[in-house]
């Protein structure tokens, strides 16, 4: 009987303080912590404090097909289905919902069918850092013999206030064989005298760099601007990855299914409205990406001197030569030592204050 009790106690002691997985031996928990990168930046249940790898996992924990029953019961009364926060009372939740669920932006594509709108000239290099963050989106037409090759044909940029600062149609480098009018609303005459792709890329890149050489751009303290979007690879920009915030690649927003990670799905799940219901408008996509970024950026997480696992002071936290020392630590102590393996967007706000 004593041995059974000791075995149960040992298993309970080897319970991860973040995701609550239990391990038969302490060394197995240490191995788990080496690869899990649990940290204060992970989406966390406001009821039981379980850490999840993504908001989709947290959503399943709270309101999925097989949720944790106690958490689901409380969340049904005091939880926001959009940001997944839990409040002290149903009344606090009602007040919160008025600001959490956003309205769909007014479609802008009819305003700019005539050509280019360029407000970038008002932001001269070095004169001002504002806007600090811009969102970009582009719409594609088809090239190649079967029209399946994506070609950038329209670009839009907005600032943090969701104001359009640049819009243009883009002349593809090869002939268009499918204008995809029913999807993106682009006609041949819109591209006839449009700005060449290389010129568009150069204008946007110069604006983003804000007077700094690309190779000198650093993640904080410079003049370069943060670029937000969903699937930004299609723009073909040569820009510092430190300054790109792509909602299609951000771990807390990702899921294995490509469809579920689309901008349309993310907007419906985390902002509470639908997009791309008719002719797709790049302005609407820009606004959705910017709002998702601002929602992720506004999260409150504990301040850490070195928040990334890749930073030098953290590189030996779970080194193999520390095995004996780590096995003597409690799960809570190991969690305090663990750091994130991705850049949390809340750090953008902290570094500007």
From TrEMBL:
InterPro entries: REX4_DEDDh_dom, REXO1/3/4-like, Ribonucl_H, RNaseH-like_sf, RNaseH_sf, Znf_C2H2_type. GO terms for cellular component: nucleus. SMART domains: EXOIII. It comes from the Eukaryota. Residues 14-43 form the C2H2-type domain. Its main location: nucleus. The keyword Membrane does not apply. Keywords: Exonuclease, Hydrolase, Metal-binding, Nuclease, Nucleus, Zinc, Zinc-finger. One of its GO terms (biological process) is rRNA processing. One of its GO terms (molecular function) is 3'-5' exonuclease activity. Belongs to the REXO4 family. This is RNA exonuclease 4. It comes from Stephania yunnanensis.
């Amino acid at each position: 009987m004593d041995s059974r009790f000791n075995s149960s106690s040992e298993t309970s002691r080897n319970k991860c303080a973040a995701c609550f997985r239990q391990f038969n031996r302490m060394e197995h928990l240490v191995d788990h912590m080496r690869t899990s990168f649990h940290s204060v930046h992970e989406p966390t249940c406001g009821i039981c404090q379980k850490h999840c790898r993504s908001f989709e996992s947290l959503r399943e924990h709270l309101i999925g097909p097989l949720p944790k029953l106690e958490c689901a019961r409380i969340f049904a009364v005091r939880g926001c289905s959009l940001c997944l926060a839990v409040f002290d009372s149903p009344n606090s939740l009602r007040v919160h919902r008025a600001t959490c669920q956003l309205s769909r932006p007014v479609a802008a594509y009819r305003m700019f069918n005539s050509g280019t709108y360029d407000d970038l000239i008002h932001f001269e290099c070095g004169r001002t850092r504002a806007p600090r963050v811009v969102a970009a989106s582009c719409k594609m037409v088809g090239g190649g013999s079967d029209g399946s090759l994506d070609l950038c044909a329209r670009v839009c940029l907005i600032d943090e206030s969701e104001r359009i600062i640049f819009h243009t149609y883009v002349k593809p480098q090869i002939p268009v064989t499918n204008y995809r009018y029913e999807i993106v609303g682009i006609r041949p005459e819109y591209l006839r005298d449009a700005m060449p792709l290389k010129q568009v890329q150069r204008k946007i890149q110069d604006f983003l760099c804000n007077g700094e050489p690309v190779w000198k751009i650093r993640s904080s303290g410079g003049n370069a601007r943060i670029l937000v979007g969903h699937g930004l690879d299609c723009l073909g920009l040569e820009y510092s990855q430190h300054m790109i915030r792509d909602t299609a690649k951000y771990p807390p927003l990702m899921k294995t299914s490509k469809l579920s990670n689309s901008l349309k799905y993310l907007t419906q799940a985390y902002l509470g409205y639908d997009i791309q219901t008719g002719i797709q408008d790049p302005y609407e996509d820009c606004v959705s990406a910017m709002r998702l970024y601002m929602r992720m950026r506004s999260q409150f997480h504990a301040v850490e001197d070195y928040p990334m696992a890749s930073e030098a002071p953290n590189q030996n936290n779970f080194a193999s030569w520390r095995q004996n020392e780590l096995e003597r630590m409690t799960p809570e102590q190991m969690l305090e030592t663990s750091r994130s393996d991705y850049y949390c967007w809340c750090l953008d706000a902290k570094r500007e204050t």
